[in-house]
Amino acid sequence: MAIRITDTTLRDAHQSLLATRMRTEDMLPIAEQIDEVGYHSLEIWGGATFDTPIRFLREDPWDRLRELRKRFKKTPLQMLLRGQNVVGYRHYADDVVEKFVELAVKNGVDIFRIFDAVNDLRNLETAVRAAKRAGAHVQGTTCYTISPVHTADMYARQAKELEEMGCDSVCLKDMAGLLHPYDAYEIIRSMKEAVSIPIQLHCHCTAGLAEMSYVKAVEAGVDVIDCAVSSMSQGTSQPPCESIVASFQGSDHDPKLDLEQLTHISDYFAEVRKKYAAFEGNVRVDAGVLLHQVPGGMVSNLVSQLREQGALDRLKDVHEEIPRVRADLGYPPLVTPTSQVVGTQAVLNVLLGQRYKQVTKESQAYVLGHYGASPAPIKEEVRRIVAGDAEPITGRPADHIQPELARAREEIGSLAAGEEDVVSYALFAQVAREFLEWRAAGAGLENEIVAALAAALTHERKAAEPVSAVADGRRSAWKLAGRQRLLRD
Q1: Which of 85, 137, 158, 179 has the highest CB neighbour count under 10 A?
Q2: d(Cα 153, Cα 198) in Å, to the nearest integer?
Q3: Measured between alpha carbons, how far is 318 from 325 in angstroms, rounded to an integer?
């Protein structure tokens, strides 16, 4: 069976490597050529590519979707949806989820890859129903991680539940690059035995295992794999498309894509990438992730938090604390937003010198069930420390959230030019309002000037970072804790 390939260059690749800073203007010139490759689909939207353009690029993500849709005539367009979190960092009411999905389809999304951070499939139900109702392809997703409760049988069961929910395909999402090749074979084979719908595999190269895992997954019968063109691949991104294509050439799994065509596209992005050098992360292979299980994007966030507190020398301690916190909390996969919950709590535990002396609102909400059911039971002593006598919710978290769309529509008023703006405001109130006010005032500086200023400010900030550590770690930790909020605008 020929393997099919989803290209992630326009979404996850630059999110992983360039802090999601690639601008629409750098995507459009090459779009028609990408459309001719013959990919299974193109992941071009969702994840952090919704709020980052509003927050940092002065771009409307809905405009990006529409512009890309105009240019991609042949290839289905795909987005990553965080279930009840939509593209945000908390659970939203059902009316927000439903309207977002409806508008995403209207503006150009064909395939929704829908996941939940704790693999509580109840948090996918509203989004799945909405996408099916809108006529889109629904790909139910289970997040891969390693723990005593995350077994091949568990992933097969979840795949079956997703199929029964009405999903058109399922995806195994290895966001931290932890999947070992022979585990990939066993899990994919178990999933294939459990379901009759196509199975897709999404891996990151963080630990250096992804290409080998893809080969074993293909041997086990996986239908689709995610890649990025070579100039935007590896490190914390996906495996290189050209290398994968070459690996299967002449075999029964040959995807029959043109290597010369792919190389030309990769050359284009090699030049584009130079423009975003200020946002480059650490792209080397980090086998340490196999021990601490911290995804690449989470590593950069931890470094930023510790550097701000003058405690970068404690990074190793935080890496060692993260698996302990994760075990305490029932082994949640480390993906947005649970990666932030676990990571920030681990930082506090280390800086304060006493575990759970200070607890973030996010940690408390997680323990109280506001993110969904934990994969394994939360340790009782930790539950008591974090939540006290408060009773956790046991149902679907969104059942406890009142409708939000009407209030958002009233609050944003005439600044909204359409329903898309209302949804943007419902998801990111403060950031969206600032953007819409800027747009209403005439859109200010040209995109090129904004990009240049952003790069200059980044260099200036890095140059100004203090080299001395903050002496009072306790005060730094309390300062960090004070900035954490459960419900972000």
Answers
A1: 179
A2: 18
A3: 10
State how far Cα 473 lies from the chain centre.
31
**Rounded to the nearest 5 degrees, what angle is found at the Cα of 438, between the Cα atoms of 432 and 439?**
90
What's the burial of 134, exposed, middle or buried (CB within 10 Å: 0-12/13-18/19+)?
Answer: middle
Phi, psi of 344 (to 5 degrees): -65, -40
Place of tokens 């509203």: 126
pLDDT grade, residue 455 (50/70/90)? low
Q: Tell me how crowded residue 182 is: count the other CB atoms within 10 A of its CB.
A: 12
pLDDT in tens, 163-193: 999 999 999 999 999 999 999 999 999 999 9
Residue with tokens 């996969």: 333
pLDDT in tens, 415-427: 999 999 999 999 9
Length of the chain: 489
Kindly report the average pLDDT of the chain as a whole number.
90
Q: Which residues of 439-464 are buried (b: 16+ CB within 10 A; e: fewer)?
A: eeeeeeeeeeebbeebbeeeeeeeee
The Cα 411–Cα 431 span in angstroms is 14
Q: How far apart are CA 229 and CA 362, in angstroms?
A: 36
Q: Is the per-residue pLDDT at 135 higher than 90? A: yes
- C-alpha R_g of the chain: 22
**Per-residue pLDDT tens digits for 266-312:** 999 999 999 999 988 766 788 888 887 877 667 767 877 888 889 99
Token pair 């195994």: residue = 172
Q: For residue 267, what are its two tokens?
A: 């050359």
Take residue 131 and report the two structure tokens written for it: 């996408």
The first and second tokens of residue 324, run together, are 């302990």
Token pair listed for 188:
């994919």
Full 3-state SS string of the chain:
CCCEEEECHHHHHHHHHCCCCCCHHHCHHHHHHHHCCCCCEEEEEEHHHCHHHHHHHCCCHHHHHHHHHHHCCCCCEEEEECHHHCCCCCCCCHHHHHHHHHHHHHHCCCEEEECCCCCCHHHHHHHHHHHHHCCCEEEEEEECCCCCCCCHHHHHHHHHHHHHHCCCEEEEEECCCCCCHHHHHHHHHHHHHHCCCCEEEEECCCCCCHHHHHHHHHHHCCCEEEEECHHHCCCCCCCEHHHHHHHHCCCCCCCCCCHHHHHHHHHHHHHHHHCCHHHCCCCCCCCCHHHHCCCHHHHHHHHHHHHHCCCHHHHHHHHHHHHHHHHHCCCCCCCCCHHHHHHHHHHHHHHHCCCCCCCCHHHHHHHCCCCCCCCCCCCHHHHHHHHCCCCCCCCCHHHHCCCCHHHHHHHHHHHCCCHHHHHHHHHCHHHHHHHHHHHHCCCCCCHHHHHHHHHHHHHHHHHHCCCCCCCCHHHHHHHHHHCCCCCCC
